[in-house]
Amino acid sequence: RWGRRQRALLCGVLLAAWEAAWGQLRYSVPEEMPKGSFVGDVAKDLGLQLPAIRDHAVRIVSEGRTQYFALHGKTGHLVTAERIDREQLCESAQQCVLRCELIVEGEMQVYGIQVEITDINDNAPSFRETEIELRVSETTAPGSRFPLTEAQDPDSGGNSLQSYELSGDEHFSLAVQAGPGGDQRPELVLAKALDREEAAFHELVLRAIDGGDPARTGTARIRVTVLDANDNAPVFSQAEYTVRVPEDVPVGSVLVTVTATDADEGPNGHVKYSLKKITQKASQIFHLDSDMGTMTLLQSLDFEKGDSYELEVQSHDGGSLFDTARVVVIVTDVNDNVPEISVRSALSEISEDAPAGTVVALLHVQDRDSGPNGEVRCSLDGDVPFRLEKSFEDYYRVVTARELDREQVSEYNVTVRAADGGSPALQSSAVLALRVLDVNDNAPVFAQERYSARVAENNAAGALVLTVRATDADWGQNARVRYRLSEGRVRGAALSSYVSVQAETGALYALRSFDYEEVRELELCVRAEDGGAPALSSNVSVRLLIVDENDNAPQVLYPPVAPPAGSSGWSGVELAPRCAGEAAAPGEAAVSLTRWLVLAVGAVSCLFVGFLLLLLALRVRRWRREQLLAAESGALRGVPVSHFVGIDGVRAFLQSYSHEVSLTADSRKSQLRFSGGSCCDTLPARLPPDEPAPLLGEE
């Protein structure tokens, strides 16, 4: 006996291991267990680590609104989350199995769990009617049978209804017939002829017993009324009525009409109808009119909750005679349920360098309809870099179909669509929001392939020369660009001593004043580097052209300065341009120099002419004022005639001035000099104070 137990235990362990290997676990637990009762050691059977369970990386998912099972975080045991009533969940099903799934978040794995709910004897048999009224004619022959109401026991197996007992009177006995489905149908058998004059009523007790330990019982009281003779029983038009109705038939519709006839006349021929064998659930759905025999619908049908119903209808006349018929209502499916998409697990962000095949979401899709109406097809909307893969039963995985590029698309709203096979098809959708994380896969790119600028010599130190700009297609720190100069030397000095670049803006500044005669152009390289790790960079060439300015005076080479005394005298000089000591200046520089010399000469000439005109205006104004003063006084005394000059005098005055103009290549050193000694014949500014002013008449 001990060996058999060991073999059974070993077989159970091997079976659990085999089922775990195939992603399926089976357990059993009695009904009505308190909340938190042990169901199975899931962590052991699946090899899960307890820390992962404590970190909520493993969870239990059940269909429906009520979660009947939970995962104990400390032990890894599957425990009950609610008190489970087998009869409420599975009604009359022989095997009651609840299904749930175990989701492993980190591994994107799902395991199916089936828990069989075993029955306990928690329900006693009960009769739908505890008071049964029978009317039997006194002419009824012994051996006649009268069907009795069956007892109902929601329990199953050995805990269900097992037998009936009858007590109370010797005129009646009990017979139990087996129905088509194996159920027991009690019948009251007339064992002895009745005599209404001897006894008008008979009181009996019918007891139903189940197979539990201890057994539970239910009772019904039977009252038999003895009637006068009624020798014709009602007869149904057919023994079985079968009707097929769609599940969306309106409430109040007539499903079927049963008909029975009785050959008797008067009250003995008046037939009434009643439902004899009907479950509590069916009694809330169907109604039988006792006079017309029409069966109507009390509430909406649902194929997913019940696809067929079997009822037993009894017709009885005014006496005690009756007939029975069977009514079968078959409910046909209508495509009235849209597919349901449940997101069991999903990522909210993914790196753009994630390899193809990376799982981003785990979905569960189901349709409660049956047949083609319940067949679901899933698809993804739009041209997205993702695809669907079948995972486990009704589970699908959304995986990447190719590598992602954040610079092209930074966010995805992936629409998963599920459509059933109905006509017309019903469909539903779910949207997965996924953000693509940046990877430093783009180097900075300059706005121009090459930069150049012209800088005038003698510039101020720190002057802005130009600004280079580079952009990076990446995001965040990976897109932050910094600039720096590449190493180099100019005329033996470090390049960084001539120019510098601002690291954040790319602005290029001159660190010193340039001299065209020393450096005419600078070739340098600017590097742009992003903030990634490792960083990516790119280079651009920058050319600075130094523009010449007229900042050097010409030197007189001929004629030479007289040699000092005692020297050997002048030996002759060759005239040469300023730039003869190096290579010939470019044509552009020569044209610029000539232009500036012409402008300088023109400016000096204009200044000189303006000065002469101003001086002439002052002289005329003074002469005019003296004329006015003389006219007012009537006579001018002490003024020599030679001092009153006309136009010829002014011309003579102008001719008496001599000037020298000295022009150089450097306009800042040009000179304009007037000779003071040649002005002796000009008008004096005012008369000497000690000489009398003779009158014009005396002259």
UniProtKB/TrEMBL annotation:
One of its GO terms (biological process) is homophilic cell adhesion via plasma membrane adhesion molecules. InterPro entries: Cadherin-like_dom, Cadherin-like_sf, Cadherin_C, Cadherin_CS, Cadherin_N, Protocadherin/Cadherin-CA. It is a single-pass membrane protein. The chain crosses the membrane at residues 596-618. Keywords: Calcium, Cell adhesion, Glycoprotein, Membrane, Repeat, Signal, Transmembrane, Transmembrane helix. Residues 139-164 are annotated as: Disordered. Residues 1-23 form the signal peptide. One of its GO terms (molecular function) is calcium ion binding. It is found in: Membrane. GO terms for cellular component: plasma membrane. Residues 68-127, 128-236, 237-341, 349-446, 447-556 form the Cadherin domain. PANTHER family: CADHERIN-87A, PROTOCADHERIN GAMMA-A3. This is PCDGA protein. It comes from Gymnorhina tibicen.
